[in-house]
Amino acid sequence: MAKPPSTGRVRLKDVATAAGVSPITVSRAFSSPHQLHPQTCQHVLEVAHAMGYLARPRQPSEPFVSTRRRVIGVLNPQLDNPFFHELTCLIGRLGETRHMDVLTMDSCNSPEQEKAAIDRLIACGVDGIILTFIASGTREQTACLERLARAGIAVVLLDREIEGPHHGGVYIDNLDCGYQAGCWMRRQPVERLLILSGPPDSRVTIGRVSGIREALAGSAISLEVHYGDFSMAPTERFLNERLGQLPLPDALIGINNQITLGILSAYRQARLPLPEHAGGPRLFCIDGITHAELLGMEISSIRHDLATMATQAMDLIEDALQSGSRRGTRQVVRGHLHLPSDAEQALP
């Protein structure tokens, strides 16, 4: 049976070499076992256990003793969203510099897949998880946090705040994001503003819409709010109907980047002038659309310091593993206003 290397640190590539497979196969055995032949998956997991790469979950009363390379799970709700994709990439790079292996999983905005992913991470014996739950807090999510606590796994929340035991969290200042968006819109020559938002019970929705309302209080702008979903397709479906009704809005705010992409797609399908084009409505995007300026899209937005968010999340995980206590803090990161002129000024 394979043995750990003489250094005592077992890495993912060490398991791959011992098992006679590629590193990506080892990663898939942990994160996407359904993509492998059952015998291959079983072989990889047996080798990993024998080498000490996977250990039993640490109990809450036990101090963390580093006898191997730490394993951190990252679970987010939508990996094809550039916001979460970039955050995950940044965490992965930080993991390498801090001698941690990072296992990435995607819940695909599905409560069932979210629960299954957490089950797999527990089974893998990860030391900690950086966790972004799907949009709305539920009793099931609180129960997941309690189960992770019983397993002795350190949990740091990222972007979505949920009640339950954890070791701190890193969140966006959603109220301020909405307030900045509302202040920008108030300065524009608009009369009818449509906000395309997420679920009404989401803390992200509540914070951002409340900030917009606060900024527009006392203005002459009429406000229409649609509560939907944080993804692109539902926004398209709603606007496909709404754009057939008069009066049309002369300004829109997409509460996140996926919603804003849905706005642009719906206007294109309706053969109406695109937002921020001649004859089209004003448009503001909270979260920003990555590299939109390279495609000729001049969209004012709120952008976030993702590098700071990733660093703070990793700092909280490391502190939790070293201390074994729940002294994690609540870190809040403020978004910054990005205007098309900013991109122009940055060009040589």
UniProtKB/TrEMBL annotation:
Q: Which InterPro entries match?
A: HTH_LacI, Lambda_DNA-bd_dom_sf, Peripla_BP_I, SBP_2_dom
Report the Gene3D superfamilies cross-referenced here: 3.40.50.2300, lambda repressor-like DNA-binding domains
Q: What are the top taxonomic ranks of the organism? A: Bacteria, Pseudomonadati, Pseudomonadota, Gammaproteobacteria, Oceanospirillales
State the organism named in the record. Kushneria pakistanensis
Q: Where are the transmembrane segments?
A: none
PROSITE patterns per the record?
HTH_LACI_2
Per the database record, which ranges form the HTH lacI-type domain?
A: 10-53
Q: Which UniProt keywords apply?
A: DNA-binding, Repressor, Transcription, Transcription regulation
Q: What is this protein called?
A: LacI family transcriptional regulator
Can you tell which superkingdom this protein's organism belongs to? Bacteria
